[in-house]
Amino acid sequence: MKNFIEEKLAVDTVLQSVLRRIQELENLLQNYKKTTPKEKGSLKVTKNKNRYQYYIKSPETPKGKYLNKKSMPLIKELCQAYYERKVFKALAIQLKLLKKFTTTYELQSAETIYKNLNKGIKKHVIPLIYDEEKFSELWTKSNNNYASLAFSTESPELISTSGIRVRSKSEMMIADCLTRNKIPFKYEFPIKTTNGITLHPDFICLNTKTHQQFLWEHFGLMDNSEYAVNMVQKDNLYRKLGFSQGKNLIYTFETKQQPITSREIEAIIQRYLQ
């Protein structure tokens, strides 16, 4: 799927990645402090020919007390503790460096430089990359005069809060959640593939931070065998065209007994579109 808007620079997601990494490291280091077993002494390892010999050093045995095969559980515990100390010490240093990095990196980003330009200069400048707001505006306006699939006379008239007619209450729920979270989307937008096939996914959504587009297909009659077969065929087509769930494609499912909920929709939006 080609971008609707060409950019001279790819969107910069470095800072977002670093912030996610900082959060992961903070959680990991915090949990490590809680779960690390009490030290039983420090480990000393020597090699005699092809055999390793293990000793435990403590204030009482500064030269080390030899650990025989019967002490293998203790040997393993000490080896693991030694390894974890080195890893988490390195991670703590990494965390410190990343936090220092974030304080200066954003100031040097192309988006920030353009945003802070003198207005007299900015009005004559063609940005090398659009900020979230401008890109979202252009994406929403691009190819906006499109024809979605026709509704039959028997179709219920369901209108989302953004004024878009949809085919089911679940699709209306998805549309309303997208609108509420300020996620730009197009309903049943026609996509022409390289082999001449035109697809009309339920939604095309934009992640304004990464400028990545996702197709969103909702399958609402999974307890209908014929419908489920058609779903599998559509999935096969998407995969042949290079779409995959989680990368540039979102699937949601429901049956009469297990309808989709707004909580599930919100979780998907948070994971892929924010």
- The rounded distance between the terminal residues' Cα atoms is 20 Å
On the 0 to 100 scale, the average pLDDT is: 87
- Helix % is 40-55%
Q: Roughly how many Å is the radius of gyration?
A: 28 Å
Low-pLDDT regions: none
Q: What's the number of helices? A: 8
Helix/strand-derived category reads alpha+beta
Shape assignment = extended
Percent in strands: 15-25%
Reported for the largest beta sheet, the result is: 4 strands, mixed
- Order of secondary-structure elements: HEEEHHHHEEHEEEEEHEH
How many strand units?
11
List the strand order in the largest sheet: 6-9-10-11
Description:
This protein has 274 residues and is of the alpha+beta class. Helices cover 42% and strands 17% of the residues. It contains 8 helices and 11 strands. It has helices spanning 14-35, 72-105, 110-115, 119-122, 132-141, 169-180, 225-240, 262-272, and strands at 42-48, 51-57, 65-67, 158-159, 165-166, 185-187, 191-192, 198-199, 203-207, 212-219, 249-253. The protein has a 4-stranded mixed sheet. The chain has a 3-stranded antiparallel sheet with strand order 1-2-3, covered by helices on one side. A two-stranded antiparallel ribbon has the order 4-5. β7 and β8 (198-199) form a beta hairpin. The longest helix has 34 residues, at 72-105. The protein is extended and about 90 Å long. The mean pLDDT is 87.
